[in-house]
Amino acid sequence: MFNIFRRILFLFEPEVSHHLAMSALQALAAFRWLHFLLRGFRPRVVDPVVVAGLQFPNRVGLAAGFDKNACYLRAVHALGFGHVEVGTITPRGQAGNPRPRLFRLPKSQALINRMGFNNDGMESIVGRLINKPNGLIVGCNLGKNKDTPLEEAYLDYLLVMERFYPYVDYFTVNVSSPNTPQLRQLQESAWLKGILDPLIKFRCRQNTNRPVFLKIAPDLDHRQILEVADTAISSGIDGIIATNTTLNRSMLTQDERSIANQYGEGGISGAPLAELSNQATKLLVEALGRQLPVLASGGMMKAEDAASRFYLGSPIVQLYTGFVYSGPELIYRIARLGKDRTTIGGL
Ligand SMILES: Cc1cc2nc3c(=O)[nH]c(=O)nc-3n(C[C@H](O)[C@H](O)[C@H](O)COP(=O)(O)O)c2cc1C
């Protein structure tokens, strides 16, 4: 059935079909019809796992950028995701890059995006979290406004964290999106410490401990990844999300690469990202041992892709492009995998 929906949705421009599909699912979920429709053949998988002291209902989540403005939480919950990362959220709302800015590469099972942190801004979004569905873990992905200089970036991250602290379960520091000029420079140790330290200091003053994760780019070399791991440990954050989208287009077929180049700049997600994300995950798991968890994001198109991350040692995976191409079935298949202890190694 999903294949028919996907064919219809793929007739529209990607951003339009995204909002059409999610608004329809959210409306169905509001009357609990979505739960009713899905439960018969894909019951919600309950497989609790504790990561960084937080109990997630199962091992599969919706990656940042899909529900940027926290508009589709009921639908996300009804679909069977254990968690969702809303955002990236910046202090002030911003329009992002001009449209079109999201493109499909169906032969490669990939997307290209240069959204540029379009979001409604923290004040508009925070109100939508007051009635978040019970049993859905909600993370807040933190970012900086485009016009905030790097020297003041830490203030943007801190402002959003302060505002969302009572309403979400965890935070992710996003310094790895390729679509905000210079943002990735913030992955360098000195900048990174300057951002993470104030967040951790703020957290120490709160009564509740909310985990803070750091999301990294797949385009870092090995030395840079190890530096990030060091900074993460010394700053007191709780885990790393590997990875965001890639600027590397070398793994696309020649045909797809020339189509991609016509679409212009942007980060690649989906199947072509899987190997890079896998490598980054492996390196980080080895470097961090069991000191910090490495959550996996990037190129999970089939349950087998998630199985390989579980096997490497990731306790949790996040989907974006795989959900677009494979639909809700993939959520169920991956969540079920988590129940099979042999698939997830020694976790
Ligand atoms: C259209 C689009 C928008 C995204 N926006 C964000 C974002 O705002 N913040 C972020 O941290 N990651 C963002 N991402 C990256 C995803 O969260 C995810 O890390 C990446 O797409 C790799 O996973 P995938 O291969 O399953 O798509 C975005 C990805 C896409 C395709």
Distinct ligand kinds: flavin mononucleotide
Q: Name the CATH class.
A: Alpha Beta
Structural class: alpha/beta
CATH topology: TIM Barrel
Measure the end-to-end span: 35 Å
Rough outline: globular
Average pLDDT figure: 92
Strand order of the largest sheet: 3-4-9-10-11-12-14-15
Give the number of helices.
13
Number-wise, the strands total 15
**Domains, number:** 1
Helix percent band: 40-55%
The CATH homologous superfamily is named: Aldolase class I
**H/E element sequence:** HHHEEEHEEEEEHEHEHEHEHEHEHEHH
Description:
The chain has helices at 2-9, 14-30, 33-39, 73-79, 122-126, 153-164, 189-204, 222-235, 254-263, 274-288, 303-312, 321-326, 328-339, and strands at 49-51, 54-56, 60-62, 83-89, 92-94, 102-105, 110-113, 119-121, 137-142, 170-174, 212-216, 239-242, 267-270, 294-297, 317-319. It is α/β, with parallel strands linked by helices and 347 residues long. It has a single domain (2-339), classed as Alpha-Beta Barrel (TIM Barrel), CATH 3.20.20. The strands form 4 sheets. It has an 8-stranded parallel beta barrel, surrounded by 7 helices. It has a 3-stranded antiparallel sheet with strand order 6-7-13, with helices on one face. The longest helix has 17 residues, at 14-30. The protein is globular. The protein starts with a helix and ends in an 8-residue tail after the last helix. The mean pLDDT is 92. Bound molecules: flavin mononucleotide.
